[in-house]
Amino acid sequence: MSALLAGTGMVGGYGGADILCGVTLEARAGEIVVIVGPNGAGKSTAMKALFGMVPLRLGAVTLRGTDITGLSPQDRVKAGMGFVPQTGNVFASMSVEENLEMGAFLREDDAAETMEMVYGLFPILRDKRRQPAGELSGGQRQQVAVGRALMTRPEVLMLDEPTAGVSPIVMDELFDKILDIAAAGPAIVMVEQNARQALAIADRGYVLAQGENRFTGTGAELMADPDVRRSFLGG
Amino acid sequence: MTDILNAIVLFLNFVGVPALAYGSQLALGALGVTLIFGVLRFAFFAHGDLMAFGTMVTILATWGLQAMGVSLGVLPTALLALPVGIAAAAGAALTADRAVFAFYRRQRAKPVVFFIASVGVMFVLNGLVRIIIGPDDQRFDDGARFVVSVREFRDWSGLSEGLAIRSTQALTVVAALIAMVLLFRFLERTRMGKAMRAFSDNEDLALLSGVDPAKVVRWTWVIAAALATLAGVLYGLDKSFKPFTYFQLLLPVFAAAILGGIGSPKGAVAGAYIVAFSEVMVTYAYRKFAMYLGPEGWAPDGLLQLLSTEYKFSVSFLILVAVLVTRPTGLFKGKVF
Fold first, then answer.
1. Per the CB < 8 Å rule, is A91 touching B201?
2. Residues A191, A192, A197, A199: is their CA dihedral positive or negative?
3. What is the pLDDT of residue B3?
């Protein structure tokens, strides 16, 4: 089976020194892909590069085999990618429902069904749909953020540290939801600080260090690898 | 009892009604300022002169209509000419955006650069208005003078004080109310309105959601110009049109927007009425008002006026300073200025 989304030999950064020095990532349909690594390894940068938010000097990004390296992030949304930034990922002053509507802004057909799907996935959002997203708790806000990104029915959903700053209980809930989302279709690519839990649900894991691929394997393989355990998972 | 009623009527006549009309005019101006700040993220200092420009074109069109013998009966002819003024102001704003602000957006300039550039735009508009219509006072109201006149009110109520409601005041309040309802509906209900709010709330996420920034910017200018022209025309009908006065309106308009919380449309409206009532109440002479409420035959020595009307702008200044020092996000938690 060929890759749905692939970044090959990505080299680049935000101007100045390269942050990515040859990173290769791929995601196949329905997979959960987790990118882990120490601080400053270029995890988020690598994912943003897949989404066109980091200019690449070398390397290419393909979606369904088509080269999308030159596309803007907005055009990648149109092409079937969704992205949930780590911070500022909701419209704080707008209601939950309006956040979801904004997620569907590019769609010309009726998005009501997708909104029902999102409410089905995150029932709490239905109860709070008239409330401004900025007034919700951290975990609920993340649900709004993920829900917003799902409104375009992406084939690949990218999450930048979805569990940053939420409590352990909420974190477990979010991981469960991510499994639910993946079961419903889209491939998921996420960067995670909580490497153990994330790798536990990963079909494919990448360990990055200093802007390069260090280890690659299924989540279970990486968890079992003594080198990975010693250097990145704390024994 | 009659004394108290007289005092209330006196107060309404000299403070309540004028402040309500003035507040409505400020609200329309402050809404424009707050929308521009929310979307373009800078303080647009040419707003007073944009008001003057739109009003000037409306006045010229009104004179044209009057010369052709067109009239709206009891309503001022200026209402018919208003669309022309709005179109001209929108054209001026879009031209300024294309010629000046678009350049700085490409440069990703800091907000203070935009603000300074807007001062330049202000001088250009200012000069244009003075060249075309001149710096003097212009009156252009016609139609009925009063909805309720002092005499009618006295005859009806039997009180010694009268309450006058000029037709321009009633028109101001009604027109402002309609404009505000339309604006809020637009922002709450329509696709473009939501896109504008989203862009103002979180620009990056709005771009990610596929909002076209160029479109949002254009809509913002057109709406702000329409509101500015409406505010200017209503102010001109209510008082008179003088370019310098419109430039001075910038201060209460900004005080209102910042008091309400810049970037918050609801705040702009609330702020505008607070600024207007403060200004009128502080500069009103309460002598007669106190005589009605005090003991029979007693009269205070002075005028009981806190501030002479020449100093009315200091009220806006005080409000501005007080808000920025104590609560820079304003009443409705806007963006920090």
1. yes
2. positive
3. 79
**Alpha-carbon gap: A102 to the closest alpha carbon of chain B (Å):** 6
CB–CB contact A105 B202 (8 Å)? no
- Lookup: tokens for B56: 């000037």
Q: Considering only CA atoms, which of B233, B229, B314 is closest in space to residue B275?
A: B314
Nearest CA in chain A to B204: A88
**Rounded Cα–Cα distance for residues A75 and A107 (Å):** 13
A23 phi and psi, to 5 degrees? -110, 135
Residue A211 structure tokens: 């802007």
The predicted model gives B119-132 an average pLDDT of 94
Q: How far apart are CA B187 and CA A14, in angstroms?
A: 36
Q: Nearest Cα to B60, choosing from B131, B122, B123?
A: B131
Q: How high is the ipTM of this complex?
A: 0.85
Most confident residue range from A29-43, A162-176, B31-45, B275-289: B31-45
Distance between alpha carbon A68 and the CA centroid of its chain, in Å?
Answer: 18
Taking the C-alpha atoms of residue A212 and residue B40, their distance in angstroms, rounded to an integer, is: 39
Give the residue from B17, B19, B16, B10 showing the smallest Cα distance to B293.
Answer: B10
Shortest Cα distance, chain B CAs vs residue A23, angstroms: 24
Q: 3-state class of A202 per DSSP?
A: coil
CB B290 within 8 A of CB B225: no
With CA atoms as reference, report the closest residue to A165 among A149, A145, A184, A186: A145
Here the tokens at position A20 are 């990515």
Coil, helix or strand for B46? coil
Contacts of A90 in chain B (CB under 8 A): 202, 205
